[in-house]
Specification:
By secondary structure, this protein is an all-alpha fold. The chain has two domains: 2-82, no CATH class; 86-122. It has four helices and no strands. The chain has helices at residues 2-33, 44-60, 62-81, 88-112. The radius of gyration is 25 Å and the shape is flat. Belongs to the ATPase g subunit family. GO terms for molecular function: proton transmembrane transporter activity.
Length: 122
């Protein structure tokens, strides 16, 4: 345990040293590439205004998303009504999608437990 801690400290020190040497240049490069996205003057008031604009813009998009959701649900209902006309390829794609979704949930659970299968850390 002590060896792992010392190794972690050494890695953290190397990362901090690298960031202190190259961080400023990286920051300048990123800001130069993305200067068209910076609002002038960059003040706290402007940031608060942009934050409110983002919030209310997203809020305004909810009715459109709601309509899109119900259209998608209607198309799924239509496919379910005509399920006897489905091809094997369509069923295979749907099955793969379901398996992938289930796998992501399982992986999420494992990650949530700290990458352990039983929930107990050794």
């Amino acid at each position: 345990m002590a060896a792992k801690l010392a190794q972690l400290r050494a890695q953290a020190a190397r990362a901090a040293e690298f960031a202190s040497k190259h961080g400023g240049a990286y920051y300048k490069e990123v800001m130069e590439k993305n200067k068209q996205y910076v609002v002038q003057p960059p003040t706290v008031e402007k940031c608060q205004e942009l934050s409110k604009q983002l919030f209310y813009t997203r809020l305004a998009s909810l009715p459109g998303r709601y309509e899109a959701f119900w259209k998608e649900l209607d198309s799924v209902k239509q496919v379910w009504k005509n399920r006897k006309d489905l091809k094997v390829e369509d069923l295979g794609i749907a099955t793969l999608f379901g398996v992938e979704l289930y796998a992501w949930f399982c992986v999420g659970e494992i990650v949530g437990r700290g990458f352990t299968l039983t929930g107990y850390k050794v």
